Amino acid sequence: MWVQRAGERFRGGDDAGVDTRHAFSFSGFYDPDNVRFGLLVACNEERLAPGAGFAEHPHRDVEIVTWVVAGELTHEDSTGRRTVVRPGDLQRLSAGRGVRHTERNTGSEPLRFVQMWLSPAEFGGEPEYEVVRRLPEAAPYPLPRADAVLHVHRPAAGQRTPLPAAPWVYAHVVRGTVDIAGERLGPGDAARVADAAGLDAEAVGAAEFLVWEMASEPVYG
After folding, report:
1. Which of 22, 55, 131, 213 could be joined to 149 by an S-S link, Cβ 3.0–4.6 Å?
2. Is the pTM of this model over 0.70?
């Protein structure tokens, strides 16, 4: 198991009111030893001040999953959708052969969200979009276009949560503190576990963390 601390993330966000913390190589930052884990190629912690956001930009052949922690995220894309995503909601944008979108904080409070990018099982296809409102605690969310499952956990103090037995498991702490294999993880910390088996996460206090269960790696060519 390898633990990446919140303070070890690469800091991005050049626009006013945007503070980004990258877990993997992203944009102007490149580390050849840290480009992905399993199918996961990005896990960005985003903080947007009121009025701040990302101007319209394109994506293709990537699965983008967004988990709002605090505030409200306004999403608009080239298919004509406009959606407000709130804490506890899960947003999925499957870029397919190509889509353009914007993400903004149009509210009056600071916005915080975690955005994760994964490689799809197949390239191309029409873009897809969905929002799962108030995703139930511990309910697995199988990503429709990738060999990956997202688990959201909100354990009480002292509660143990089994981690999936899978070739690649990525656990990201949103709030609170959890112990995994003797390592104490706080907000923004993440654990990468290869060939996970027999592990669990124990909440030190009330906590919230995201777990990706992945059974394959990207295939190119």
Report:
1. 213
2. yes
